[in-house]
Amino acid sequence: MGGRGSCYLNFNNSNNSTAGDVDITSILENTNEDKDTLKKYNGKTEKLKNKNIHIKESTDNLPEDVFIPNIKKIDHLTRKYVETSNILKAKNQEMAVRSDRLGTYTEACFISSSTDFSSLQIVLNKDLKHSNRKRVEENTQSQIDSGYWMKSDKDQLVNQTITHEFGHYVQRVLMEKDKQTKNGNKEYSDFISNVKNCTTPKQVAKLVRTYSEYKATKYFKQIQRIHRKEFGKESIEDISRYGRESNREAFAELFANLNTCKNPTSLAKSMSIFLDKNFIVKGPKVDRDRIKN
Ligand SMILES: [Zn+2]
User: Fold this and answer.
1) End-to-end CA distance of the chain
2) What's the CA gap between 151 and 143, in Å, rounded?
3) Centroid of ligand 1 to alpha carbon of 293 (angstroms)
4) pLDDT digits 0-9 by tens, 244-279
């Protein structure tokens, strides 16, 4: 079993936190996934179940005034980016939203525990120091103030982490779409033949990370190209420090900024144009006349 993981780490403000690549294999080995049963469905969770997104009972550990807005946010994002749930349904795949112990500094992570990226999970840390919405908002705000996370509007602070994790999922959907092109299919076949030569799960995990980062870099370059064209800017100064650690995290950070801010950064607006081109996106498109100002 391989593991593609991008963890959204909590920054402890002391500059020595090891953000970026967490050892996903160890998270997968220690996971309680097998014991985690489906939550009873009602309202919002029922809607998500119909989109092949399954909420697990372990999320009962999370504070309700945080988790309910998170669920509503996922519902909103799957309606906006309709292709996300279309792909899950077309491939008869599921995504689980779970809670588990992820260590002190990991806020949440997105894991695909199979090399075809079919088994997906958003895992939220149940050891969170913050036990209610107010504390989550304060923590998120302090990460933003330190420049480590992207900006979110006040009423969306509670949803920043879940939106970031969903951003990793959007990257995976783009990768799935790429497989349908000749070049993308070759890249994937090459990746799979390399996986077959691996002898340890650690080697597989490394390959999965490299492949995923390679794809993220391709998408990020396209976003930067749009950014140059639309804004005449070269720089990436409006990406958080966390987003600068890898292009996978840059993608998720920009996605979080784009979907938790009424006025996102110019680079996040460029991502919006990129997603409009590559995705079925519902709702208003970016106003190109306005963004040049
Ligand atoms: Zn991440």
Assistant:
1) 49
2) 9
3) 31
4) 889 999 999 999 999 999 999 999 999 999 999 887
